[in-house]
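Methods — Computational structure assignment.
A single polypeptide chain was analysed. Its primary sequence is given first, followed by the predicted tertiary structure written as structure tokens.
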Amino acid sequence: MLTGLGISQLPTIWTFKSDLTQLKGTIQALETYVTTVTESRRGHKSQKAELIFYLNEYKQKYYLAENIGDDYHDDKYQNILQGLKRADSVSVWIKKSELDEFEPQVFQIDNDKRTLLDFEAVRMSESLLTFFLLLLGPITIAFFFYLRYPDRFDKVFGINENTT
């Protein structure tokens, strides 16, 4: 399961600038939210920041979200919001393969003056977690088999063999 989560994030990490297309337009609607998310098992509450906007020229919803822990304010999305509000035109970079989707993944946002959300930051934001999950999956499986079948595990990997 952990490895599966890691694998599901690989398309984001393996996205290159040449895989993206630039959509230029003007802001139709724009809003940020901070909502409380509760983990059902432990009852732990954290905050999720969301940025949602639409462009007049396209029938798509551009949605960004991230967990901000215990904070009730997110400077990153507020800065993007202010940059979008001040812009005469906006460029949103999405995958070419997601042009027909209603809610494509956003990789970069530029206003007419500067980059508000950087492609490399989006692409690499999940890389450490993906690497961790990809490693944790096989390690967890190996540990299970080690606990369940210690003799066979030792025999396969040559652990505790006396070499003389």
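Note: The longest strand covers residues 27-38.
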